[in-house]
Design goal:
Length: 187
């Protein structure tokens, strides 16, 4: 199998080559499918990253969820090789500030949450395979967090970044479903 470093470079390139209009349309379709899903409608708590750069945009998902759900955003603590990710309640974008790697994270005023009752976690990924495994950005934060998470895990990704199979090991956590601009996969 191709090395993860090569795969990351390939999928980053694919995303950068998307035209702004193509990307905006794909983001809209993914957002609509996600927000109209039974999983989103029935959850009480949404764990969601704040997108940057080449990631599928989470802005509209977060905007709606701030009005409807308890929203928890991640904060990465420590180095990627052994760091951890914790989730904090945020009620709006104004409660977020630039943190690790330039990513918006909850401010110090936000309350940490450690119990995830009826929770749905949105997973970022450069690529997902047809079994639900993901290729992240290489920090390992999500896999370490998900090892102890018992809620529903939903990936969001462009269909052009879905592949047949990714190499994975016992530490890799797979999504329960994946929302793309073309379809919804359930595993």
């Amino acid at each position: 199998m191709v090395e993860k470093r090569e795969l990351r470079a390939h999928y980053k390139k694919l995303r950068r080559e998307m035209s702004p209009s193509e990307r905006k349309q794909a983001d809209r379709l993914i957002t609509e499918a996600f927000l109209n899903s039974d999983e989103y409608r029935s959850c009480d708590m949404l764990l969601c990253f704040v997108s940057t750069g080449i990631e599928v945009s989470t802005r509209e998902i977060l905007t709606r969820a701030f009005a409807e759900k308890t929203v928890l955003c991640p904060k990465c603590i420590g180095s990627p090789s052994e760091g951890i990710m914790r989730f904090y309640e945020a009620g709006s974008f104004s409660e977020l500030e630039e943190g690790t790697m330039g990513i918006l994270e909850p401010s110090e005023k936000c309350r940490e949450v450690t119990e995830f009752e009826n929770a749905l976690c949105v997973l970022p990924g450069l690529c997902f395979d047809r079994q639900g495994y993901r290729l992240g950005f290489g920090g390992g934060y999500y896999d370490r967090f998900l090892a102890g998470f018992n809620g529903v895990k939903a990936g969001i990704c462009y269909e052009s970044c879905v592949c047949d199979e990714l190499a994975h090991n016992e530490y890799d956590m797979k999504a329960d479903m994946l929302f793309t601009d073309k379809c919804i996969y359930r595993y």
